[in-house]
Design a protein that fits this description.
Blueprint lengths: L1 H11 L8 E3 L3 H11 L2 E3 L2 H5 L6 E4 L6 H10 L3 E5 L6 H13 L4 E4 L6 H11 L6 E9 L12 H4 L1 H18 L2 E10 L5 E10 L4 E7 L9 E8 L2 E8 L9 E8 L6 E2 L7 H15 L8 H20 L3 E2 L1
Parallel strand pairs: 1-2, 3-4, 4-5, 6-9
Antiparallel strand pairs: 6-10, 7-8, 7-14, 8-9, 10-11, 11-12, 12-13
Helix pairs in contact: 1-9, 4-5, 5-10, 8-10
Length: 323
């Protein structure tokens, strides 16, 4: 994610923010990144926090370490850009936000789909009323388990599929539709004992029904896939994305609207940019302007985290949970 974040910011260009340093306990990896991007190299987190050139810390650590290092950064009076999931529990997430407030720093969780160009366009179409009342949404996110980090295979460290992959779609539909009403999840455990193939059904208070299918257990060679279909009373919009093993330059995607009255699908024009760079730039602008990030608020992150925790319970109990 470090490469994705820095690469995204570089691709988009920025006049007011740049990376100053990289920190990792793996000295070889740290030195490699520092040399590649022309950054200072640190092997100790708290030593890096003493660097006056560092105003914001971008935390790309394994999920189970988010709370510990976000709290340390907040107490050092550094603003925090934190990869998802915010934390492994609602209580841990609240502790991060409370510590940030107590120390007068701003924090934003990297809920990337809110900034992704095609998803942002879908948001615009829904909120403008172009699609009418939203009846249902189907979302898909499929791939193989990442091989670049062993901790991903450990349920205690990763939070399994829900907290590290399906979280994107669950977060986005919360962002799009508002308050959820209930959630039900069903899944299968993999060889490591983690729920990494899961189907979720979420009902929202506005009446929209959502089905989210996620898997990190796809057959080797299956392309990384993102999909979303939004059915409204005045039209349907469909986003399709297929890549290689990961999100790569060879990805093929389309955004198509099927308007009321027929006539077939029509391509939807939208902006083109790197979503990772977009969200980082947005947070940097919020810090400069002295405002909290409205695109990803504390309230929205906590609501999504509560839904995710109930989804995990549902996997175990088979119950539908009110939210």
């Amino acid at each position: 994610m470090f490469d994705a974040h820095l690469g995204g910011l570089t691709a988009n260009g920025s006049d007011n923010v740049k990376y100053a340093a990289v920190c990792d306990i793996d000295k070889e990896k740290c030195n490699e990144k520092a040399e590649k991007y022309g950054l200072k190299a640190y092997y100790d987190f708290e030593e890096m926090l003493e660097d006056p050139d560092v105003d914001v810390v971008d935390i790309c650590l394994p999920s189970h370490l988010h709370e510990k290092f976000a709290v340390i950064a907040a107490k050092a009076k550094k603003h925090i850009f934190l990869e998802k999931p915010v934390a492994m529990s609602v209580e841990s997430a609240q502790n991060i936000f409370d510590t940030a407030k107590e120390n007068g720093v701003r924090i934003m969780v990297a809920q990337t789909l809110r900034f992704w160009a095609e998803y942002a366009k879908i948001t615009e179409m829904v909120r403008s009323g172009e699609l009418g009342d939203i009846v249902s949404i189907a979302a898909t996110r499929l791939g193989q388990a990442p091989t670049w980090a062993g901790w991903y295979q450990n349920p205690e460290m990763s939070g399994e599929l829900l907290l590290n992959l399906t979280i994107h779609d669950i977060d986005y539909v919360h962002h799009l539709l508002g308050k959820p009403k209930s959630i039900y999840s069903a899944g299968s455990k993999d060889a490591q004992g983690g729920f990494n193939d899961v189907v979720n059904i979420i009902k929202f208070e506005n009446g929209t029904n959502v089905v989210i299918d996620g898997s990190m257990s796809m057959t080797p060679g299956y392309p990384f896939t993102m999909y979303m279909r939004v059915l409204g009373t005045k039209g349907t919009v469909e986003f399709s994305f297929k890549a290689g093993v990961n999100i790569d330059a060879g990805a093929v995607s389309s955004l198509t609207v099927f308007p009321e009255g027929g006539g077939g699908g029509k391509p939807v024009e939208h902006e083109t940019y790197d979503a990772y760079g977009k969200e980082i730039q947005y947070f940097a602008d919020c810090i400069e302007q002295g405002t909290d990030p409205e695109m990803v608020t504390e309230e929205s992150v906590l609501t999504v985290t509560k839904s995710l925790m109930k989804a995990k319970e549902s996997l175990i109990t088979g119950e539908v949970y009110e939210l």
